[in-house]
Amino acid sequence: MINLNTPQLGLGPVAESSTDAMKISVLASGSSGNVTYIETPTHKVLVDAGLSGKKINELMQSIGRDLQDVDSLFVTHEHTDHAKSVGVLARKYGINVYANEKTWSAIAGKVGKIPLEQKFDLEAGEIQELDGLDVQSFPVSHDAIDPQFYEMHYGGKSFVILTDTGYVSERMAGVIKNADGYLFECNHDMDMLRMGAYPWPLKQRILGDTGHLSNEDGANALMEVLGNRTKRIYLGHLSRENNMKALAHLTVASMMTEKDYGVEHDFHLLDTDPDAATDLTIL
Q1: Cβ distance 26 to 50 under 8 Å?
Q2: I want to staple 179 with a disulfide (CB 3.0 to 4.6 A). Which of 34, 158, 239, 256 is the partner?
Q3: Which of 44, 39, 40 lies closest to 13 in space, CA to CA?
Q4: Range of the domain at 203
Q5: Does residue 138 carry a pLDDT above 70?
Q6: Could you tell me the CATH number of the domain that includes residue 73?
């Protein structure tokens, strides 16, 4: 079912130049859909495809990039807000898709047929090498069949994507510590969730160990993992119903400032949006 061979996507050394850098844009982040774009001189990569293909194409165009140039897509888990258009993008643009075996099984009936030569198995704890871009996978605690997220390493820089987890374990923190940049979950405000209209079983799911990080949880976890290399922190996967962008930002900034972290001095806190891309930025 799954091609276990490493795709041959140009194995020569990457030339050193002023443009030899990793660039990132959080195309969309939120409970309604998630897509992140990572670029090096030799590869253009997406993590997740949780919106329609049309919307992802529009977001790519908004940062001056084209889906035709994307060569790889890394899937974190099978939930629709992360995997909605995996099959569409693979078929239409010939993109190679990476996921672990259980996630492949979970999405098999949802995303349609993907050519075998475009399907690759990447298990938690493994690293996929793409011409100097090393994509390191790590497991998280979420109510999906086998969820994993990714840390991108290129040119001495690293960028961690971590949304959709109920907590950050010591082991997980050790893997992602002192990255240059983070996309980190701040899904909900605890009071908004508890007083909101969601049924109690759903609230319990979100608050549980396989749910989502609150603003406070996200701030506390960030203070455990950021280091002197960390310069950019994107706050992501905000719930439309149980959070607000300004509230998440204020909560994280206040908690960090109270603990003497150099917010907007040593590093920047940056907002994301479910419908608009962040600027394409050199990490």
Answers
A1: no
A2: 158
A3: 40
A4: 23-282
A5: yes
A6: 3.60.15.10
